[in-house]
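Priority: medium. Attachment 1 of 2:
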């Protein structure tokens, strides 16, 4: 994945995930609350809870790109969030085989993909779009549906599904 010029057309969720040292404890508590909500509710009834959760997950890694997957059961409840790949400031390598293996291990029926853009730019790059299609095709072979790919940054979140890119 690489960063391209920003021209954000879609509305984005704004969140201030400050950099004060005490913010770490607040973020950890917020993640705990959101994770509990997501594991007991059908999360697709409230996409904002998913965006909030992923925004907070991304705030733990402000200096480099991280790719994660939210694995869901057949009723679209969270099984587990897994940070799968960690890269540099502008890119990370993602291996579809490893995502497929983890989906099989967790017996997932669906996934929500996510990665952060440390630059703050939420615009998906062409590489982001190609990766999403590659993962969608690989996961389709094992009957796992890709519901969304959410890009996060300190500026907010962007849903590729809402943009019509899934």
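Attachment 2 of 2:
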């Amino acid at each position: 994945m690489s960063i391209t010029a920003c021209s954000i057309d879609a509305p984005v969720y704004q969140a201030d995930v400050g950099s004060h040292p005490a913010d770490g404890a607040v973020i950890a508590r917020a993640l705990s609350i959101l994770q509990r909500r997501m594991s007991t509710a059908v999360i697709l009834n409230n996409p904002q809870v998913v965006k909030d959760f992923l925004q907070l997950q991304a705030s733990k890694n402000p200096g480099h790109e991280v790719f994660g997957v939210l694995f869901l059961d057949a009723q679209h409840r969270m099984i587990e969030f897994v940070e799968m790949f960690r890269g540099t400031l502008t890119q990370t390598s993602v291996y579809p085989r490893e995502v497929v293996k983890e989906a099989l291990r967790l017996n997932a029926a669906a996934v929500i993909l996510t990665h952060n853009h440390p630059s703050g730019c939420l615009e998906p790059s062409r590489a982001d779009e190609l990766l999403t299609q590659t993962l969608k095709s690989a996961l389709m072979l094992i009957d796992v549906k890709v519901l969304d790919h959410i890009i996060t940054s300190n500026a907010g979140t962007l849903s590729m599904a809402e943009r019509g890119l899934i």
